[in-house]
Write a structure and sequence with these properties.
It is built from seven helices and 28 strands. The protein is an alpha/beta fold.
Amino acid sequence: MRFFVAFFMIFIASLNANNLDFAFIKKGTPSDNTMLLIGGIQGDEPGGFLAASIVATDYNITQGSLWVVPNLNFPSIIQRARGTKGDMNRKFAHVDVNDPDYKAVINIKKIISDKNVSLVLNLHDGSGFYSDTYVNADINPKKWGSTCIIDQARLEGAKYPDLIGIASKIKDTLNTKILNSSHTYHVKNTKTAEGDLEMLKSLTYYAVTQNKSAFANEASKNLNAEERTFYHLVAIEEYMRIVGIKFTRPFELNVKNVKKAIEKEIRLSFFDDMFVLNLMDMRPNLNYIPLKKGSQPLYSSSNPLVAVIKDSNGYKVQYGNRFVTRLVPQYFDYAKQVDFINVFVDGRQIKIKSGDKIQVKHFFNIERKNGIRANVIGYGSGLDESEENIYKKNMMSRYSVDKSGKIYRVELYETPSNKFAGMFLVEFL
């Protein structure tokens, strides 16, 4: 399990390639009135894991305590499947020790039952739109979309015992924000303990057995990802208000801005910024990536939904269930990372370190550094390309990192050993 601790920003721990354990992010101030937010228990429900990820990365908790698990079933997210080995949300009454989901289920159960957790919110994307009466094939009592789910009306002894009252309040708030009348939210009480054999195995009912006030929020699979995520965020914010969590976010909450938040640039760093990419508009394949010889790639990211996975052609980079790019490595011994290098950008000198990205309007020129040669990928004038004025017109666009042909890698090598010593990115404006 990956443990991330966050108060005013996210700190992401280094991971090995193929590590698909879930992330656990703590935000705010430790408290015995902690809200636990969970997304991604089913990998074909992106609204839930995208909403939880946005809260984990973009929301600043100014009062109260919030714990976030945005990618509980990370392997199923990567495979865009409900579950890789059955439905994880049916394994909370019992999970076999040999089940591939065993570790994740046992670890999330420990978090749910933690003495500090007072309210649990599990995010789902359900089919169609729930209605108390049959309207049509998409809107009827058998559907799960647009619902606030509870297992029972009350949970005596819990921090927040009035489950139906809280769910009704969330429903009312959501219905002030609906984009279309067909999206109207309802409360759905599964009355699990009265004999719902499937729900008896679920995460929220397990939370109820631990005397935790538990809810599920269901957006509709009939909607696109940003609309589902929007509805989840509206619900999450209202639940946070109920438990006294105060927060700020860097955008106005609407569908357009949610889409921007989903698609914003994500930083991916290998070996503590020896090699860095910014995941936006990426080419589907990047060749000759300088990875460390004799070592599985260690990486970190500004977003917990990013994974680096070994395949037959190199390493596949995923953002949730979206393929981003494939890295085809070239292996090097690593030198000590360059501490800084001076670069003249449009005639102005700046000092940068490995992993930085600089923006260039006209040209850049790398100051020669003793014992280091610079290789500008896509320029190709010689072995060391220091002390040359390099313009975008000089660059071969097929070597750019991005599809738009604006971003290029500058790699630094120790001489005469030819050990890799770091890199930075240049973005032409």
